[in-house]
Design goal:
This protein is mainly beta and about 725 residues long. The protein contains four helices and 56 strands. The strands form 14 sheets. Strands 10, 11, 13, 14, 15, 16, 18, 19 and 20 form a nine-stranded antiparallel β-sheet that branches. Strands 49, 50, 52, 53 and 55 form a five-stranded antiparallel β-sheet that branches. It has a four-stranded antiparallel β-sheet with strand order 1-48-47-46, with no helix packed on it. The longest helix is centred in the C-terminal third of the chain and has 7 residues.
Length: about 725
């Protein structure tokens, strides 16, 4: 009933029929294509849930390309789905990514501190034997180091029967697949024909990973040199031996690869490496790592990692359950495996760095990447990124991208902007079991079976908990209503308010005793929202019965402790109202639409909503009773008038027998006035015409008078006097 007059609640309208009439909680997802968030948008998608205490959270992820929705309830594990899958009627996923229970297998092959690159051996199937090489000539083969190394010497194995041959090794850079500039040369050395000969390069030549270099042999006399294989990799050009090796000019065309090689000192060490791997969903959600495995080997070796796959139910596709030989939908959609390995810093502390991300179906990976490359990759951050507990009973959005939930007496927090990751180390506990939580501003109010708690913070790893010294237990989870400044809930003693600053009070005890509160309000299965300016709730009065009884408590600052209607426009409300179920159906749930803030009711297999944009609503009949007016002496009021307006949707008045007025409001009746004298009903009059003179029965005098109006019209004024003459002067 709103300011200045008696106005009943408008009747909720049917908005949408449930696909499954047994569902008890709904959530609306607007269509992004039309961008129509209105509650009446016909292209919205309605999610339906069996548990009435379900909570749904829209994704806090920055620029979430998948537009995910997350939900949790007491009867199911936390789950989520993407916008596209929701609109395509595809099933949801279990929230969180598990860790593999098996460490990776690692096999180390090769490597060492001394490395040979080039063509040291002969392939007998493709070699064409010994070839003639003229004197004063440089012959090259290319090499590509796999890490940072030093070329210490260059070797070859000549075969000749002529004059003695002097040689020196040379190292050149590469340009467009040919030798380019001299980087270093070896000491001139006589060749021993028929065996391997080595020219040591003074101070060596530093080379880096994955870059082509050319190593060669320069001689002062001709000799024969065997082909290592027939691949056309060698190059050569003329150069006078007595002079320093020049930059190449007319390099020959590629020739068969000659048996020339470089001897390098690797930057490799014999080290201990730890390997782990994580699983990643198709949406980029990473889980915690597997157990580690530590293996020793040369850093420049080939490290072959064997990986384990998730169970078939976690790999995104329908899978065959061998237990009953039926196809079942996947629980998760794990699509990738990330491999990490340790790199130790100067103090010996190891850190895991990303090696590679591969498809989850790939069983092995060969790691031959140097530490200098791996150290530039991302570090492992998902060490404690476990999924939420399976019995987490709610999920709420908190500022800074944090999601918060609870179980038992534990408050859980997600990693910021990662709702799939809930590190156990972030958990806070309460003394009493938790009934529910609400978020007001920068505070989380935890409502328990004992005293409430307040939690503040901006980092999930460092949230602070404060116990509110107000022993007011919360009766029902769905009675918790969060506003911008406070959280309210129902206790057996009244309506409790906990502000975001941590102060708490019973907002109704100033005008309703605790005994009266329990007799007026439902005490079981209370479901509430903030509706208009009031705390709007329905619940069960009789144990085990349906949800039929409701009430409102005014929350506006000027009237929250008042039952009075002041005859002035603009600000005053009834402090308290009792409600009956609208539309004549039992209520399943009371909710607020997340996109509009409009109150919706789940009842009769459908969704009904309060349309405050309707200028011609159907008004639900109301009953209002005044306070008791104590007279100075016993008096008899004789006449009254009621002034009202008739909403245009009100059924037309039907003529009735004035001699025997109807005492119960009928379907085609504007209203009834009842006069009570000393708490006993004395007169009943039907309201038919605004301002009409209505007589009160004579023959009684009383000290205590009260007046009751039952109607569906907007009553602005009730005038009562001891005589018709006195009434005319009002």
């Amino acid at each position: 009933m709103f300011s200045g007059s008696l106005i009943g609640w408008r009747q909720p309208k049917l908005l949408h029929w449930l696909r499954d009439s047994t569902k008890q909680f709904v959530y609306r997802v607007p269509n992004k294509v039309t961008n129509n968030t209105a509650i009446t948008a016909s292209d919205s998608k309605w999610l339906e849930f069996a548990d009435p205490d379900t909570t749904v959270m829209h994704s806090p992820v920055v620029q979430d390309q998948y537009d995910r929705f997350y939900w949790a309830s007491p009867s199911s594990v936390p789950r989520y789905n993407t916008y596209d899958r929701i609109f395509n009627d595809q099933h949801d996923w279990i929230l969180g990514v598990p860790a593999s229970g098996c460490p990776p297998g690692v096999v180390v092959d090769g490597g060492g501190d001394t490395i040979t690159l080039g063509a040291p051996t002969v392939d007998p199937t493709t070699s064409t034997g010994f070839q003639y090489v003229p004197g004063n000539y440089i012959l090259f083969v290319p090499i590509v180091p796999s890490g940072t190394m030093i070329i210490q010497s260059v070797s070859f194995a000549p075969n000749d029967v002529g004059s003695p041959v002097n040689f020196r090794g040379v190292v050149y850079s590469d340009l467009n697949g040919a030798p380019y500039q001299l980087l270093g040369e070896g000491v001139s050395t006589p060749a021993a024909l028929g065996s391997a000969n080595t020219s040591v390069i003074t101070n060596g030549v530093s080379v880096i990973s994955n870059v082509t270099y050319w190593v060669g042999i320069m001689t002062d006399a001709p000799y024969n040199l065997e082909n290592a294989n027939s691949s056309l990799k060698s190059r050569g050009y003329s150069a006078t031996y007595s002079n320093a090796p020049p930059d190449p000019l007319n390099v020959s065309l590629p020739q068969a690869t000659y048996r020339i090689w470089a001897n390098l000192l690797g930057a490799s060490i014999f080290e201990a490496r730890g390997y782990v791997y994580t699983w990643v969903t198709a949406y980029g959600e990473e889980g915690p790592p597997s157990s580690p495995v530590v293996v020793n080997g040369w850093s420049n070796a080939n490290w072959t990692i064997s990986l384990f796959q998730p169970t078939p139910s976690n790999m995104g596709a329908d899978w065959l359950d061998p237990a009953d030989n039926t196809m079942k939908p996947a629980d998760r959609n794990i699509a990738f495996t990330r491999i990490y390995r340790t790199i130790s810093n100067q103090s010996g502390m190891g850190t895991y760095f990303l090696v590679a991300e591969i498809p989850v179906s790939q069983g092995t990976y060969v790691d031959n990447i140097g530490d200098d490359v791996i150290a530039l990759n991302a570090q492992l951050v998902s060490l404690y990124w476990y999924g939420p507990p399976e019995d987490m009973q709610a999920i709420h959005a908190f500022p800074n991208g944090i999601a918060v939930g609870f179980r038992s007496n534990e408050i859980w927090f997600s990693e910021a902007y990662r709702p799939h990751a809930w590190p156990p180390g972030y958990v806070l506990t309460t003394e009493f079991p938790i009934v529910g939580i609400g978020v007001a501003g920068q505070s989380i109010i935890v409502c328990t079976q004992g005293t409430p708690y307040m939690i503040n913070g901006v980092n999930p790893a460092s949230m602070a908990s404060t116990k509110v010294n107000l022993p007011e237990p919360c009766l029902h989870r769905a009675s918790i209503v969060a506003t911008d400044t406070a959280v309210l809930y129902v206790s057996q003693n009244g309506l409790i308010q906990i502000s975001q600053s941590g102060s708490g009070l019973n907002v109704t005890e100033g005008w309703i005793t605790r005994e009266k509160w329990q007799s007026l309000t439902p005490q079981q299965r209370v479901r509430a929202v903030k509706h208009a300016t009031s705390y709007f709730a329905f619940g069960v009065r009789n144990p085990g019965g349906p949800i039929r009884d409701g009430f409102t408590v005014e929350l506006s600052s000027e009237d929250k402790t008042s039952f009075t209607i002041w005859p002035q426009a603009g600000g005053h409300r009834l402090g308290y109202n009792n409600l009956t179920t609208p539309n004549g159906f039992d209520i399943v749930n009371v909710e607020l639409d997340a996109w509009t803030g409009i109150c919706v009711l789940v009842q009769n297999g459908g969704i009904y909503y309060y349309d405050f944009t309707d200028q011609h609503p159907i008004i639900v009949p109301y009953i209002w009773r005044s306070k008791t007016y104590q007279q100075l002496a016993r008096r008899n009021f004789a006449a009254m008038r009621v002034f009202f307006e008739v909403p245009d949707t009100t059924p037309p008045q039907v003529a009735r027998d004035v001699t025997f007025p109807q005492t119960v409001l009928g379907n085609n009746q504007y209203g009834i006035v009842r006069i009570y004298v000393d708490d006993a009903l004395w007169t009943t009059r039907e309201i038919r015409k605004s301002g009409e003179l209505l007589r009160i029965f004579s023959g009684i005098k009383g000290e205590q008078w009260s007046f009751e109006i039952e109607g569906r019209i907007n009553v602005s004024n009730l005038q009562v006097a001891t005589s018709v003459k006195e009434l005319a002067g009002v």
